[in-house]
């Protein structure tokens, strides 16, 4: 088993025909090109949050981490899309950054506002109102995940997602990073973004249920304003679950998130796992080099 803090610093995301792996200091994107070659690019991540003691504090660090993760995720997708269509000279503009946050806001607002609007049509109040709203939000979320998982054109992305999880699981278990060893590991991972969303929704339901009755606009304001706070708490829960993943209690808590990953991941083929290994090996090399230079 590798050092817990160091291994938990690695994460990733599936992109078009490839995988993005990242640490606290570097981001690596590996893409399988049409000719079978793996194209790998590495970039140092700006040290904005790392240089600020305030932004590294528990229950605060989750907020910049969320926006950083979403921004780097969209940036990686844009890059992979350009590689797939064989336009490898990519320059990310301020417009793309703006687009990223607009999409984030729109996606979040849909799952927050739509269930609230529908529930508001019923003549119910108090705890019953919150229960109905929660059930609608969960239904919307499940329908969305099922729709994505059934989308044939998106299946390869879900397979790359599974490959990313297998590689990270193997790394955190201290296994030898080769194809045979990595294939033995699970495609499910407790710190996945799917698990984060499950924790986020669960906390939202719990918190909103204890807030006194309000008007529609007051309810909406609460749900929007509390997003960063709930996200920060969810981030800490996932970090804690990662450090104590062998605990029976933690295993029970993460079951819903792992269950939903059967929809958001698929079993990868060998070529996909090799792409994940390429990305993980490179990000580990760059991160270790950075640590040596700093020390």
Strand content: 5-15%
Tally of helical segments: 13
Percent in helix: 55-70%
Largest sheet: 4 strands, antiparallel
What is the CA–CA distance across the termini? 24 Å
Give the beta-strand count.
Answer: 4
Mean pLDDT: 80
Tell me the Rg in angstroms.
Answer: 20 Å
Low-pLDDT ranges: 3-7
Spell the H/E element sequence. HEEEEHHHHHHHHHHHH
Query: SS-based structural class?
Result: alpha+beta
Broad shape: globular
- Physical arrangement of strands within the biggest beta sheet: 1-2-3-4
What's the number of domains? 1
Provide a descriptive summary of the structure in words:
The chain is an alpha+beta fold. The chain has one domain (4-294). Helices cover 65% and strands 8% of the residues. The protein contains 13 helices and four strands. A four-stranded antiparallel β-sheet has the order 1-2-3-4. A hairpin with a 5-residue loop joins strand 3 and strand 4 (38-44). The longest helix is centred in the middle third of the chain and has 27 residues, at 94-120. It is globular. The model is unreliable at 3-7 (pLDDT under 50).
